[in-house]
Amino acid sequence: MLMSNRIKEIIEVILNSRGYVTVGEIAKQIEVSDRTVYREIPEVMEVMRGYGVQLNTASKKGMVAVGSAEDMRNLRSFLGMKNQIYIVDPKERVDFILLYLLHENDYIKTEALAIDNDTSIPTVRNDLKKVKEQLSGYDLHLIQKKGEGILITGSEIEKNALTVNTLLNHVDESSLYQWLNKEGDLSNPFVRRMEEYGYHHVMTVCHRIIKSIVQDQYELSTMIKDREYLEYILLIAMMIDCHKKGRPYKKEFETENFNKEEQKITRQVKKSLEKEFHVMLSEQEEQYIRWVLHVGMVQDTSRVYTIQNHLLDAKIYNFIQYVEDRMGIQLIRDKELKESLYIHIDRALIRIRSGMCISNPLIEDVKRDYEELFMVIREGADRIFDGDFFPDDEIGYLVLYFAVSLDNVMKRSFRILVVCSGGMGSSKMLSHRLEQEIPEICVRKEVSLIGFGQENLDEYDLILSTIPLYIDKRNYLKVSPLLSRNELEQIHEAIKRHKYKTMRKITIREKEQRQLETRDHIESLEKLRALMDVGLRVIKRFKVVQAKEKNLKNNLLRILSEESGRQASELDARNRKQQFYLIPATDMVYYEAVFSQMSEPRLFAVHFEDEQYMSSGEKYTDVIYAVYPENPSEYEKNTLNHVLESVIDDKDIQHLIHKADEKGIRQWIGYRFKQYLAELLSL
After folding, report:
1. Domain PTS EIIB type-2 spans what residues (predicted)?
2. Any idea which of 52-61, 102-111, 140-149 has the lowest mean pLDDT?
């Protein structure tokens, strides 16, 4: 089949892309116009169809080649393409180098790694430092010899476990299933590398054998998750590969106390593998098959407390209690949390004590999104399980269990008081409607107007009434018994604000506790005095200014210029950082800026007479400016953060800002700040 060089180039770009690629991206790579690429697409599709490969397109995503692995290989062969692999993401490149080194039995030069990954030698050297960090969780070592190169040493079992974790972190489950079923293409570089290492046949055969055994065991098929099933397949396949290459596993695993069902399945798997691959597996290899099955199996939670180790149960109880005390929220009644922790920690301890590790692809996200919770659980695990060290990847999974429980507690702890005029019919109707539309909330009580006066309103997060209540409460809504769409939206907003407020309180409580517990009482009082001094200065100087122009930055510079007597241009030159965003569930914008040579933090508001609009279309009428010195003290940051929280959280303060009532604002913020100091004193 004859074709132009341009058609060939376009097809090569499509085949080398890791997923969808746009016309613009193709045009950029082959240095032609978008129009030229569009013109060649029909011929491109015709050539690809000739080899059984389809060109699928999707709106706003681009196009992708779809076909069997064999058809893809034939098309590549026709084009004369080498199996070149492109890695762009730095994290992927590190893991790709790791995968390469795990499969080398001799020293590799840094220059060879640089060429293989199409990068520089200094970049590879930096990547090798990160590779070394990843090996720390395994019984593996990165050896670097001058003049010879780099080599990873350690047991075959550890190398294979890390290989499987690396593969699972970079290939989604559906793509792996396609590969094991001999479907799809090899666009993923990690899959292509495993194919080059010759794993495809042994892994597809293990998949076929074990899949049939799992499907015959209904209970087991409902207990094993996709990722754990794939991990089991890949680990067993790599064990078989080592055996066939004359490197059988010789490490012994303690499996005597595993249940009869696991032992039965292990025997079935062993017998089928021996028959298919014409091998005789050793006792240690049979132990490994059973051990991997046990570690990867999702246990039936209804049996947890009949088979569990009572010592472990007591430790998990103490673990939850420790987190409770640190976070200030009750979790011990969450049965699902206890069962989930038992199952995971039971398996984690087996892995840890066997010298095996798992990787957590979400670890960086968990550390960023749950920073305080991660630190609490890290400290709790070190204290309660003092004889075992949990790697950060394991801690990351534990954090997610607690995060789910905390989220549920915060929703269920949203307390609602329902008020009606006389009979309880309308309140029952309203409560029923609430539970239907928002099942996670808790209607704490239903009262009539007569009984309303006897209630302590501070015990409720929201008061809903079918009649007007003349109370000065920011958490009160008048609604109809059937709840309109708008009223439901207002309730959802109140829940969102409650959740945000709770998480902020947890974060502040934990930070302050961590800071104060390492100091004596005199130092704590000194800190409180410093906080109070900074807070008083910020609150006293708070003011509301009328906006004179639409540009947020110009308004800030104008106000600071009027206060300091300096030119706006001079102040602008000292501006080191700025960011702003719309505060959720309000019509207010938060604007933060950092200036050099500023003596202390400032907080003020700017009010617009007319509605203003963000670039995203959201409207606002007020802007809260928080101005920090370049290197603020811990007291200044904590004080400003708390005052800001009061403004963001309190509708009364927001209403006063709209009215430009400076005196009222100072009084309200002062009251909230006083409560904050009282909380610190009680720690």
Report:
1. 414-503
2. 52-61
* Judgement on whether residues 463 and 359 belong to the same structural domain of the protein: no
Q: Is 461 in contact with 501 (CB distance < 8 Å)?
A: no
Domain boundary among 260, 279, 298: 298
Give me the number of domains the chain comprises.
Answer: 6
- Measured between alpha carbons, how far is 611 from 490 in angstroms, rounded to an integer? 21
Same domain, 195 and 58: no
Strand partners, 278: none
Let me know whether 655 and 528 are in one domain.
Answer: yes
Least confident of 8-22, 44-58, 344-358, 489-503: 489-503
So what's the pLDDT on residue 656?
86
Q: What is the mean pLDDT of residues 289-316?
A: 62
Where does residue 528 rank: exposed (0-12), middle (13-18), buried (19+ CB within 10 A)? middle
Average pLDDT over residues 30-35: 85
Distance CA 474, CA 462 (A): 9
The stretch 217-235 carries a mean pLDDT of 69
pLDDT, tens digit (0-9, with 9 covering 90-100), for 573-627: 888 888 887 876 778 888 888 888 888 888 999 999 888 888 777 888 999 998 9
Beta-carbon contacts of 75 under 8 Å, excluding residues fewer than 6 positions away, are 11, 15, 48, 51, 53, 67
513 within a domain of the structure (yes/no): no
pLDDT at 215: 72
Residue 303 counted as domain residue: no
CATH number of the domain where residue 420 is located:
3.40.50.2300
Q: What is the pLDDT of residues 152-167, one digit of tens each?
A: 998 888 899 889 888 8
* Matching residue, tokens 């209804």: 302
* CATH number where 122 lies: 1.10.10.10
Q: Residue 658 is inside which H or E element, if any?
A: helix 651-659
pTM of the model: 0.48
Contact (Cβ atoms closer than 8 angstroms) between residue 384 and residue 398: no
In a domain, 407, yes or no: no
CA distances from 310 to 305, 316, 333, 346, 380 (A): 9, 10, 18, 12, 19
401 in a structural domain = no
Same domain assignment for residues 177 and 260? yes
Residue 306 is predicted with a pLDDT of: 37
Judge whether 304 and 342 are in contact, CB under 8 Å.
Answer: yes
Give pairs for 425-431: CB < 8 Å, separation 24+.
426/466, 426/481, 427/466, 427/481, 429/481, 429/482, 430/464, 430/466, 430/479, 430/481, 430/483
Render 127-138 in DSSP notation, one character per residue: HHHHHHHHHTTT
Q: Specify whether 433 is located in the same domain as 556.
A: no
Edge-to-edge, what's the strand order for the sheet holding 588-595?
A: 544-546, 602-613, 619-629, 588-595, 575-582
Do 9 and 136 reside in the same domain of the chain? Answer: no
Task: DSSP for 96-114, please give it.
Answer: HHHHHHHT-SS-B-HHHHH
pLDDT at 302: 41
Phi, psi of 374 (to 5 degrees): -60, -45
**CA nearest to 341, candidates 388, 301, 373:** 301
- Per-residue pLDDT reduced to its tens digit, 376-406: 899 999 999 888 888 888 898 898 888 888 7
Q: Are residues 456 and 594 in the same domain?
A: no
- Find the CATH number of the domain harbouring 628: 3.40.930.10
Instruction: Give the residues across from 544 on adjacent strands.
Output: 605
Q: Quick check: 304 pLDDT over 70?
A: no
Residue with tokens 């704590």: 524
In whole angstroms, give the CA distance from residue 178 to residue 186. 10
**Domain closes at, from 359, 390, 421:** 390
Based on the domain organization, do 467 and 348 belong to the same domain?
no
Q: Which strand (E) or helix (H) includes residue 152?
A: strand 149-154
Domain range enclosing 356: 309-390
